[in-house]
Amino acid sequence: AWLNRPEEEETPALRIGRLVHLASLQPAVFDATIKVAPKCDKRTKEGKEIWATFQTMLQPGQEAISEQEGELVTNVSLAARDGIEFLRTAVGATGPAIVETAYTSIYNGATIKGRPDMVIPTAEGNVVVDVKTCGDAGKPFAKDCANFMYHLQAAFYMTIVPNCTGFYFVAVEKEAPYAFAIYRLDEASLAEGQRLMESAVELYKQCNLFRTYPGYPTTPQTLSIPRWAIGQVE
User: Fold this and answer.
1) How far apart are CA 186 and CA 191, in angstroms?
2) What span, in angstroms and rounded, lies between the C-alpha atoms of 114 and 172?
3) What is the mean pLDDT of residues 60-81?
4) Element (H, E) at 114
């Protein structure tokens, strides 16, 4: 159902995240395909003319963003690139990074694939890097990892990337001063991510084998309303 769903409209948060990733990891592609629109009042004759001229200058495949979006993406992506450079030094990078490349692997009899943000080659092996935009790159980022299952993502990418020796997050804040932090998950977090991945792979195999995709239980269940809703005064 998820694969066959109608394409959803991109939310502002997803849009900014996509643009930040492009500007951080592929700045040349960003510069060639993303164009900042001129600031103009399209309600006026002059503004309409400025906007129409800008529209005619856009080439096929190019995307327009607002001046405000452009400033935000630039600031966040510059911080992300600084974080990546610090990390490259810390892990002892031995060559150019591999960016936005798809990997495929066989795990427990299932074919799995993914597209890590970046893979940095080192003398010991490959290090996977994932850029995350966030509201707070400090301790609250641990909550983000749990809520969005970043530990599952880490286990997944460490499995599909050959000779992977580590996985790091570059967490970048979306507000000034656009601070960043670099994190590596501890063994307990990675172990939980590995457990979730193994469970998902096993479920995927069973679904494909029997061509059934379970949803909710089909037997009657007992449902309890939340405790806070009991004894409420009307």
Assistant:
1) 9
2) 22
3) 92
4) strand 110-114
Q: Read off the tokens for 90.
A: 């810390």
The secondary structure element, H or E, covering residue 49 is helix 45-57
Neighbouring C-beta atoms of residue 100, cutoff 10 Å: 14
Amino acid found at 99: V
* Residues β-bridged to residue 173: 134
Mean pLDDT of the chain: 92
Distance, in Å, from the CA atom of 217 to the CA atom of 204, rounded to the nearest integer, reads 18
Q: Residue 114: which of 80, 73, 162, 76 has the closest Cα?
A: 162
Euclidean distance between CA atoms 199 and 213, whole angstroms: 15
In the predicted model, is pLDDT for residue 234 greater than 80? no
Residue type, 39: K
* Amino acid code (one letter) for 221: Q
Q: Structure pTM?
A: 0.84
Which H, E and C letters describe 137-155, residue by residue?
CCCHHHHHHHHCCHHHHHH
Contact 84, 118 (CB under 8 A): yes
Work out the end-to-end distance of the chain between its first and last CA atoms, rounded to an integer number of angstroms. Answer: 41
Owner of token pair 């990337």: 161
Q: Please name which of 96, 41, 33, 85 lies closest in space to residue 59, comparing C-alpha atoms.
A: 33
Write out the DSSP string of 183-214.
E---HHHHHHHHHHHHHHHHHHHHHHHHT---
Tens of pLDDT along 167-198? 999 999 999 999 999 999 999 999 999 999 99
